[in-house]
Amino acid sequence: MLFKDQLDFVTQHIKKNKLRVFMTVLAATMGCAFLIVLASVGFGLQDSIRNEILSDEKVTKIQVHGNDQFTEEQIHEIKNIEHVETVLETITVNASAHSFLESRDTQSDLYVANMHDFEQVNGKLAEGKYPTKPNEIVVGYHFAQTLVNDAERKIIEEKSKKAELEGTFYNGSEEGYKDSLIGKEIELSLMPRTEGAKETEKKKYTIVGVMKKPSYDWMINNSIYMDTEQKPVLATNLAATGTVKEDDMFYSEFNIFADSMENVKPILDKLKDKGYSVYSITEQLDQMNVFFLVLKIGLIFVGTIAVLIASIGIFNTMTMAVTERTREIGVLKAIGASPKLIQRLFLMESTFIGVIGTLIAVAISYVISFVANAALPLILKAATGEDAFSRNEITFSLIPWQLVLIASAISIGVAMVSGYRPARKATKIDVIQALRQEL
After folding, report:
1. Strand partners, 128
2. Among 215, 198, 238, residue whose Cα is nearest residue 91
3. Same domain assignment for residues 42 and 87
4. Residue 282 domain-assigned?
5. Which of 35, 116, 294, 413 has its CB surrounded by the most CB atoms within 10 Å?
6. How far is residue 164's CA from residue 389's CA, in Å, rounded to a whole number?
């Protein structure tokens, strides 16, 4: 029997029982679509959390735990490890930086670092350049926004109260210094974070650069960054207040940076072998991937149950097909059709139902995923008032090609298994009894 004739045998039955086959295909479609959409939630959540982690911190950064200071020999040793880009010491000044520009002022954190290493790590600025002279500084992206006068403070306070009543938050973005800060000279004093401390005398600094905008809109960066050459000057100013001990003036943090994400783990292993207490965000990603792997397997398992329920419909349809076509099967056997051929004919029919149901399910799943990702952020924004949801920063549903392959294999496989028993039954029909059956 030619393959074309086999197809004709299958399509004739499908055309003859359109409604029954349609309902069976619909059940297979619903089961497969449920499997894909359910599992897509796991893929979507993993993608959202992964992107959030990667955007929140520099993925090539390796944090060093403990308060021990690195010696020059240790820094040189670490820098000689293959694929290490730099070792950055960031010194936090234990005082609030009080900056003055014209009639405006602001309070911010102050950090000291080697500007060459700092530039290697942070890359291009939003505006300006990195310091090359002792009295030059770089400021955070929102430094100008936080530079306000007394009149603007009152306006911000009023707007904040109004926003609070409405259940929202006002960040003062409409106020602040609106001109470019590049080349502007500010006066800066330090207020130690100790009880009864006095503010230091003012020193003049020139702003030469502005940092890039933070990853998230809710992050406000108005910090000040200066070169390590200014550390003795800052220490002298803090000591002059007589309220700060030398050991409490500065806190150092060491971070090691790899040249790429792929090389972070080998560097981590080498540092741990040398006895360093280190941590990287990539370790958190590994733990997260294991968790979501288990979650996705669980979701696929639950979705498979829906496919198995749909398989009952396929089994019933194929059983009825065998019963209704007993005479045709007898004729086929009488003219020499082998049991394998008869079995293949009915397996082709059940496979056809599975394939059509799967194709429709995949298309429907992508539509549902698109609609969910577009509509749910708007619904959550309306419910919570958070703008982050409306900007689609969260992926609720993600359908990668791997999920489509897995779901298709399960759906079509279950359809074939469902049709196997009826197909085997067709091969065992007695020819004489089949031919005696009334038309």
Report:
1. 209
2. 238
3. no
4. no
5. 35
6. 19
- Do 22 and 72 belong together in one domain? no
Do residue 261 and residue 164 come from a single domain?
yes
Task: Give the model's pLDDT for residue 419.
Answer: 86
In single-letter form, the type of residue at position 5 comes to D
What residues contact 432, with CB distance under 8 A and at least 6 apart?
A: 330
137 and 181 share a domain? Answer: yes
Q: 88 in a domain, yes or no?
A: yes
pLDDT (tens digit, 9 = 90+) per residue, 127-160?
999 999 989 999 999 999 999 999 999 999 998 8
Say if residue 97 is exposed, middle or buried (CB neighbours under 10 Å; 0-12, 13-18, 19+): buried
Q: Which residues contact 329 (CB under 8 A, 6 or more apart)?
A: 322, 342, 426, 429, 434
Which residue has tokens 């500065």? 250
Instruction: Enter the tokens of residue 434.
Output: 């089949």
Q: Is 276 or 328 the better-scoring residue by pLDDT?
A: 276
Going by their DSSP bridges, the two strands 110-113 and 185-192 should be labelled as unpaired
Residue range(s) defining the domain that contains residue 428: 3-55+287-436
- pLDDT single digits (tens) 68-96: 567 788 888 888 888 888 888 899 998 99
Q: Is residue 61 part of a domain?
A: no
C-alpha to C-alpha distance for 277 and 147, rounded to whole angstroms: 40
The tokens describing 105, both together, are 């002022």
- What is the CA angle 335-341-347, rounded to 5? 135
